Amino acid sequence: MFAFLLTVLIIDGLLLSVVVLLQAGQGGGLASMGGGGGTDTVMGGRQAVTILTKLTWWCGGIFLLLSLVLSFVPRGASSSAIQERLRAATPAEPQQAPLPLGAPTQPAAQAPAAAPGAAPQKTTAPAAQTPVPPAKAPAPAAQTPAPQPKK
Predict the structure, then answer these.
(1) Residue 28, C-beta contacts closer than 8 angstroms, at least 6 positions apart
(2) Backbone φ and ψ of 5, nearest 5°
(3) How far apart are CA 112 and CA 145, in angstroms?
């Protein structure tokens, strides 16, 4: 159904192009704006309705109607070989997104941070991974005495 309607639309488009090109132009173009002929000179006078004019309107209407109908008609169940290959190549489960630059390679649950003043803990790592050294605690800030209020 889709292929048939598309074929009719293409034939109608070609016929519309030929009919429009066969019509006589109104003539003048920009040269008609020079003399005081009024709006009839600029817009062109009322022309007699010819068979080409009627055919242009009919072909244009059919083209618009077929375009609208084709937007609602399903294309059919057949798909191309490229679409089938793309469906087969699509992974079943998406992979994990890469980590942003500067992010740790192990999650925080596997490598807990050492508390300040506590001895570093040794983490157990799987055999395939190398152990990550524990993070260093920041040096304690120098304590300054609080200013005494004046009496």
Answers:
(1) 41, 44
(2) -65, -35
(3) 34
Give the predicted TM-score (pTM) of the model: 0.42
The CA R_g of the chain, rounded to the nearest whole Å, is 40
Q: What is the pLDDT of residue 107?
A: 58
Residues in CB range of 62: below 8 A, 6 or more apart: 12
Rounded Cα distance, 34 and 40, in Å: 13
Whether the per-residue pLDDT at 22 is higher than 70: the answer is yes
Q: Long-range contacts: 11-16, Cβ < 8 Å, 24+?
A: 12/59, 12/62, 12/63, 12/66, 13/63, 15/59, 16/56, 16/59, 16/60, 16/63
For range 108-123, the mean pLDDT: 57
